[in-house]
Design brief:
Keywords: DNA-binding. GO terms for molecular function: DNA binding; DNA-binding transcription factor activity. InterPro entries: HTH_MarR-typ, MarR/SlyA-like, WH-like_DNA-bd_sf, WH_DNA-bd_sf. It holds the Pfam family MarR_2. This is DNA-binding MarR family transcriptional regulator. The chain is 62% helix and 11% strand. By secondary structure, it is mainly alpha-helical. It has a single domain, classed as Winged helix-like DNA-binding domain superfamily/Winged helix DNA-binding domain (Arc Repressor Mutant, subunit A). The protein has a two-stranded antiparallel sheet with strand order 1-2. Helix 2 crosses helix 4 and helix 3 packs across helix 4. The longest helix is centred in the first third of the chain and has 32 residues. 11% of the residues are buried.
Length: 181
């Protein structure tokens, strides 16, 4: 069709045609997700500055708090994966947070070798104080949408995450031949 924008998207061994509207919408969604990720990083950076921590230490603390809130506390190994750090660097980070009284390593499992990371009572109040306004505004925003809309959005995010997890699990992501400089 005349004037129609068409992009080709690789899909395994075949190509499929995606019309311009879908490509534009996908680009806008990705742009919004990138912007949210950048703002989330900025917010965590402010939390770090507020506590006087290095940004990576604050990010680790946020991951530990979030995992606990979800009822799935992290192990040091899982934290190192979440942060993209070596286990040695994660141990040093946890030593700093433990020394500050923000994190406790516990042995809650029947296998006593398994370590679970818990936030301490000392960080609960400051974390709630800092993140409280965000939680209030998020709840107000969510309240503006119908449950069906939110269900579809949650489904989209779940499927997007699964797609990214699958791509990252691939041992050789991307084209078989890297570009030449």
């Amino acid at each position: 069709m005349e004037g129609e924008h068409v992009d080709r998207v690789a899909d395994g061994s075949t190509d499929r045609v995606v019309d311009g509207d879908l490509a534009d919408r996908s680009a806008r969604l990705l742009d919004g997700l990138r912007a949210f990720g950048a703002l989330y990083t900025d917010f965590t950076g402010r939390f770090a500055a507020w506590l006087g921590l290095h940004s990576t230490d604050a990010t680790a603390l946020v991951e530990i708090l979030y995992a606990e809130d979800k009822g799935a506390p992290l192990s040091p190994t899982r934290l190192s994966e979440r942060l993209g750090l070596t286990t040695g660097a994660t141990t040093n980070l946890l030593n700093r947070l433990e020394k500050l009284g923000y994190v406790v390593r516990t042995r809650e499992h029947t296998d006593r070798r398994v370590v679970t990371l818990r936030s301490s009572r000392e960080i609960e109040k400051p974390a709630r104080e800092f993140f409280g306004p965000l939680n209030v505004q998020l709840q107000a925003l969510v309240a503006q949408y119908e449950p069906g809309q939110l269900d579809r959005f949650e489904n989209f995010l779940h499927r997007l995450r699964a797609t990214m997890d699958d791509l990252l699990a691939d041992e050789e992501p991307g084209p078989a031949t890297p570009p030449r400089p």
